[in-house]
C-alpha cells in the first residue's frame, strides 16, 4: 500500500492556486504532514516523488499523530451527536409549528415556535390559576368543597407552581362539589315551596 505525490505536482499546484505564495504555503503544509508520516529514513522514488508505504504510515502508539488522531476522533463523535440533536430539534420545531397552526392559528409567533408555545402555556396557566383562586374564594358556599380547598397550597407562589394537570384535576373536583351543592340547594328550595303551597 503506498501513497504517491509526484514532484511535478508542486509546480502545477502553484499554477492552479492562482498565487505562488498561497500555493507554496499549501504544498509546504502538505509536505510537512507527509514527512511526519514518512519518518526520517524513508526512501524516495526514482522519479523524485515521495512514497509512504503502509507500514510507515501506521500511527505508532504514543506518537504525536496517535494523540492527534484520538482528539480528532473525539471531536468527530461530538460533532455527530450535535448534528443528531440539531436534526431532532428541527423535527420537534416542525411539530410545534403544526400544533400552533392547528390549535392556535391567531396566536402571535413572536420569538419563534418554541417561544410562542411557551407564551401560550404561560397564558393558560395564569388563567387556570385565576379560576382556582376564584373557586377557592367562594368554596364556603358549596359545603363539602371546603374539604377540597384545604388540600390546595396557599395562595401565591406555592399554588402558582402547581402543574397544569393538577390544577385541572382540582378544579374538576371543586366544580363537581359545587354542582352537587347547587343541585341539593335547588331540591331543598323546591321542597320548601311545595310545603308552603300545601299549607295554604
Automatic annotation (TrEMBL):
Location of the region described as Disordered in the Swiss-Prot/TrEMBL record: 1-22
Record-given protein name: Uncharacterized protein
